[in-house]
Amino acid sequence: MIFSIIISIPWVKELGEIVTLPAAIAIITGIAYIPGYLNAFLVVSLLFDRQPAFKTTAPTDPISILIACRNEEQGIAATLKQIAKQDYQGDLYIYVIDNNSTDATAQVAKKLGEELGLNVRILFAKKPGKNNALNKGLQFVETKHVITLDADTLLHPQAIRRLMSRMNSAPNNVCSVAGAILVRNSRENWLAKIQEWDYFLGIASIKRLQGLYQGTLVAQGAYSLYLTDVVKEVGGWPDAIGEDIVLTWAFLEKNYKVYFEPTAIAFTDVPTGFIHFARQRSRWARGMIEALKRVKPWQQPMVFTRYLTGSNLVMPYLDFVYTFVWIPGLILSLFGIFWIVGPHTLLVLPLTLLTNYILYRYQKGVFSELGLRIRRNIGGFFLYVLCYQMIMAPVSVWGYLQEFMRLRRIWK
Q1: What is the C-alpha separation between 30 and 14, in angstroms, rounded?
Q2: What count of Cα atoms within 13 Å lies in the side-chain half-sphere of residue 227?
Q3: Which of 85, 132, 147, 370 has the fewest Cβ atoms within 10 Å of its own Cβ atom?
Q4: pTM metric for this prediction
Q5: Structurally, what CATH architecture does the domain formed by 63-307 represent?
Q6: How far apart are CA 159 and CA 149, in angstroms?
Q7: How many Å apart are CA 247 and CA 269, to the nearest integer?
Q8: Distance between CA 84 and CA 95 in Å, rounded?
Q9: 87-107 residue pLDDT tens
Q10: H/E element holding 258?
């Protein structure tokens, strides 16, 4: 970062003559200094990361699984079938919570549960909201451990065993283990192909980084394991659009730790339409703001957690600068105006490719361990490297504005 600052001095001076020196420093800090520091921190941390071996590989603890559903008649069958294929030897108690579905979700789940020999119980939550559905299911959980699983998420056959093995191998103050979510429908269109790399490289790597510092910031509701008593201790899932983010930060605030297990894999369908995608990612951005408002980073008891949650404070700033400065700067460069983006910007590409190659090599090892094969998706990779941030930054800004304007929350 210091090297970047030194070599950028001429750029700062030239831009300062156009927009004033303070504005130039603020712009270049948001475009180059902070993103460069965060990327370097990520890569170096991952190079030092060594995931501890499992102390037990065949746990048998009974586990409850909460599946919150709303109009999932088409997807719930595949989800239950994958649960039936698990190599986990302990008892599984499955609660399908129907949250005001207008289709036959409950009937399909009940019938298939009987056919598969699963212990499925159907519950009904009338009050809209995923948090209300999960809290309804939590009332019936009697096991020490509980898993939340989205109705459109399919588990790898070893998923539950590996998730539980990590929990049983962890220190006593670990209250949750997040599983790894990957994309199932990446063949549908270009947007799904890009998201495949985001989940495979971006999201998984950030969770590994956070897990290394014992502060995974989101035990995602789509697929994570929790200690039931701790979930109840913090009041269950909160009334928030990012209920899983706020819940996780509540764990961290009470000095609990959250881990991530990269080999406990599940596959989900990602949005293939831009509007659906924008709604999902703006919800994620809005959920981060909710968490920051409810649990301030400086209130976190652990130093690593304060650092990790505190880094989220700069994310809105980075997204605003990227959206309203970098993207217009890119457009200006097409007309020969190189105030923000110029030929020198291409020098970032080799570093970006090297970074993603390092992340790819690790993920390839995870896949090999599970007997999986990485799909060929070269076009999606280059779109991810070159274009993804140009999509994500404006969408995230829209999420921040939604929370600022207190717009109505929508589950889907």
Answers
A1: 17
A2: 19
A3: 85
A4: 0.92
A5: Alpha-Beta Complex (3.90)
A6: 12
A7: 24
A8: 14
A9: 999 999 999 999 988 999 999
A10: strand 257-268
